[in-house]
Amino acid sequence: MNKIWKYIIIGFCGALLAVGFAFAYAAGVESRRTLKCERLEVEIADSLQNSFVTPADVKMYLDKGYGEYVGQPLDSLDLVKMEKIVDGRSAVKKSHAYVTKDGVLHLKVSQRKPVVRFQKKDGGFYADEEGYIFPLQNSYASHVQIIDGNIPLAANSGYKGSIEDPEELMWFRRVMAVVNYMEGSRIWKDKIVQISVDAKGELILVPREGKERFRFGQPVGIEEKFSKMEAYYTTIIPEKGQDAYRCIDLRNKGQIVCK
């Protein structure tokens, strides 16, 4: 076979493939035009850890914000608009909408994962590890560390968004370092049930048992301060007894001051 015929055959096969793809594409477009949305299926990621959002909630969001979608042609559905409606809910981190050939509209929803709950005089709010703040939810309360008192954050109970102020963000990250340290410890995760912030912005740690209050101070020198707390429980309590002291001051380097 000479080169001319070889090129002719290759070109002919290429043309056939192009025609085939064109017909397949046209058939797919026509199929989407005739297929209608049969139902909605919602998948909630991490639903075992958090239950801020349910499939019924997502359906309600779409019904109110979007309108009719069941019975509508698949190619007429505005999936981007649907995602924006669901993403607008405070406890939703991201949603992904798509349709399948069986006429099902799918919505996969990722929830925000709170790592701490701040409680101010005018109400409370959650924050995730990225510093995104969102309101408490009526349907579900997440079991996370509670921080109350004079919290130096401008956000209130209705705020939704990131911490923008640099000083507030620095304070938040330092406090989160304390929380993460406790969460990563088998001892302190269950022993400390509350963190309060005093008028100076210093932390006071409240244990689950006993009347002691640990003056932690500013959220720095974390490992050293928890080591002193451990020394209090392993050395001082066995000698003096539980509740012998009300205030254990951890703020001075190399010292434990009990009052």
Task: Describe the protein in words.
Mean pLDDT is 86; it is low at 22-27. 36% of the residues lie in helices and 26% in strands. A hairpin with a 4-residue loop joins strand 2 and strand 3. It is elongated. It folds into 2 domains: 39-111, Ubiquitin-like (UB roll) (Roll); 114-258, Cell division protein FtsQ/DivIB (Rossmann fold, 3-Layer(aba) Sandwich). With 259 residues, the protein is of the alpha/beta class. The relative contact order is 0.08. The longest helix is centred in the N-terminal third of the chain and has 32 residues, at 3-34. The termini are far apart. A 10-stranded mixed beta sheet has the order 8-6-5-4-7-9-10-11-12-13.
* Major β-sheet profile: 10 strands, mixed
> Hey, roughly how much beta strand do the residues contain?
25-35%
Enumerate how many helices there are, as a single number: 6
Shape: elongated
Oligomer: single chain
Secondary structure category:
alpha/beta
Proportion in helices: 25-40%
Radius of gyration: 29 Å
CATH class designation of the largest domain: Alpha Beta
Unreliable parts? 22-27
**Arithmetic mean pLDDT:** 86
Q: State the CATH architecture of the largest domain.
A: 3-Layer(aba) Sandwich
